Amino acid sequence: MNRVLLTGATGLVGAHLLRLLIDDARVDEIIAPTRRPLPAIRKVINPIEEDLTDVLRPMDQALDMVFCCLGTTRKQAGSREAFLHVDYTLVVDSALTGLRLGAKHLLVVSAHGANRHSPFFYSRVKGEMENALRHQGWPRLTLIRPSLLLGERRQKRSGESLMTPLFSMLPGNWRAVPAQAVAKAMMTAAFSAGQEAVTIIESADIPRLAQQASRERR
């Protein structure tokens, strides 16, 4: 039985990943806490709380794997403190909950350019988050670093809309990637027989892993 925790299930990547997990016979139960109720779906347990911490703290059933797709922007969050709470604190708390409940593999959506020494606040927070997860001692830790994400968000981000045409033409790790491809790449990484304690999936590698996931589903 694979029992997984998915945080960020209503986000751009998380919504795609939730559907993939539901349809995958290797997954028996998905704990997907959200602030807004999800439709009733088979295999999904959906605790509703305004603050994710209120769900994570009392959890006591064993987990096999944790997927974290949490992420926002400073503008959307409203302040630096609120941004840090989502992109750092809640990610770290999701991971610690998984470790406490016996999970062996953590997969997290980070960002291209994540670096705790970066002069840019967003990239620095992502790098600090990655560093904190590395120090938790996971048997397997997979960090996915997409560039600009393509897809329909519930809440439009005007800056992303302006940058999408440019990022769609850029080479390598800078090129924008579909959120669905990120979710598929996470599925490939989750069920691969990896040997590395820490695996970093850069943005340019995401389409290849997504194609692999599509082939395995046929």
List the helices and strands and how they pair.
Blueprint: E1 3-7, H1 12-23, E2 29-31, E3 44-45, H2 53-56, E4 65-68, H3 74-77, H4 80-100, E5 105-109, H5 121-134, E6 140-145, E7 149-150, H6 158-167, E8 177-178, H7 179-190, E9 198-202, H8 206-217
Parallel strand pairs: 1-2, 1-4, 2-3, 4-5, 5-6, 6-9, 7-8
Which structural class is indicated by helix and strand composition? Answer: alpha/beta
Alpha plus pi helix count: 8
Residue-averaged pLDDT: 91
Distance between the termini: 22 Å
Beta-strand content: 15-25%
Q: Can you describe this structure?
A:
This protein is 41% helix and 16% strand. By secondary structure, the protein is α/β, with parallel strands linked by helices. Strand 1 (3-7), helix 1 (12-23) and strand 2 form a beta-alpha-beta unit. Helix 1 crosses helix 7 (179-190) and helix 4 runs parallel beside helix 5 (121-134). The longest helix is centred in the middle third of the chain and has 21 residues, at 80-100. The protein is globular and about 40 Å long.
How would you concisely characterize the structure shown here?
With 218 residues, the chain is of the alpha/beta class.
Tag the structure with descriptive keywords.
218 residues, alpha/beta, seven-stranded parallel beta sheet, globular
